[in-house]
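Long-time lurker. I teach an intro course on protein structure, and each term I like to show students one example going from raw sequence to a predicted 3D structure in token notation. This year I'd like something fresh instead of my usual example. Would anyone be willing to generate the tokens for the chain below so I can use it in lecture? Attribution to the forum is fine with me.
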Amino acid sequence: MWEKLQPKLPSYDDELVGIDSRIKKIYALLRTESQEVRFMSIWGMGGIGKTTLAKFVYNKIHDQYDISCFLENVREVSSERDGLLCLQRKLLSHLRIRSMTIESLDQGKETLRNLLFNKKVLLVLDDLSSDIQVENLAGKPEWFGQGSRVIITTRDKHLLKSFHVCDNYDVPILNSDESLQLLCQKAFRREKPEEAYLELSSSVVQYAGGVPLALKVLGSFLCGRSASVWEDALKMLRKDVQNDICKTLRISYDGLRDNEKAILLDIACFFKGSTKDDVTRILENCDFNPLIGIEVLIEKSLVTYDGLHLGMHDLLQEMCRNIVLQESPNDASKRSRLWSLKDIDQVLRNNNVSFFNNFILDLQIIPHYSLC
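-- Reply from a regular --
Happy to contribute to a lecture. Here you go:
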């Protein structure tokens, strides 16, 4: 079956280093020729490329199914108010049935079960963090018609024990050659390092630990910089004995200008998934210079752009939001940004009006970007 699929695949994006062998293994586990309903998982640490792999497979095979749906960032979305209900509605929207509304999770589960059981479905649940999410979005294999496939990506391997998973693919880290290739693509715009940076590149590869996200961000940060800056970056990495990836990513944040830092934090807290035009318009009204700022963030691999929407890896978003939280760990009113309804409610109840008088964004714009 792989031989039939392979000629249809376009040449890979240069950044998708090492993807060929990984895609082949995932496709073999899917067993798309089988008529049984199969749940499979893609497991690995944050930043290792689970979502990238799932998207690639989804884009190649989705037209083989009656219904196909990719639910991205399930962990993040389901933590919001009515988040799981919104995800159920998004899945149901792919059925294109007019005048169909659901008001509760139980109703959503019953509706999904009744409408999908005779359909061949391809469903990707990206970044799962609890069995409750699966219960409300994919239930049991009996929900789906013959030949259906449910692909789950998660960081938590323990969760897979409670799922109906037939097979699991553990995403391996990049090997040293793959890591060096990806770093060089970002740092030098070529596949091999410049002679003067050969040893420095090897050291950076070592500290990135084979994690694609870390290699992209570090490579983009170091691109065009002198060897002395590379050495400084390595000194900072060596201070972090555990080599925590968020601390590694923090190096690129610290290297931004103040305006770029502010824009990055705003995207992380409010605008991930919003259109670039909307974000630009809003930030212009806040006296930022977003056009150049957003371009810099894209060039540094801190923000992604698909031609319409701005995105960000969940680890980078986690890092940025933690930066805001650390501004005042115990008093939300002293932070520069609020995105949690719980924190907003606390500030309002404590009558911290001064916070909102100085708040960078009008809170009325935030519901405009909700999934629902």
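Some talking points for your students: The first strand starts at residue 38 and ends at 43. The beta strands are 38-43, 67-71, 121-128, 149-154, 165-170, 304-305, 310-311.
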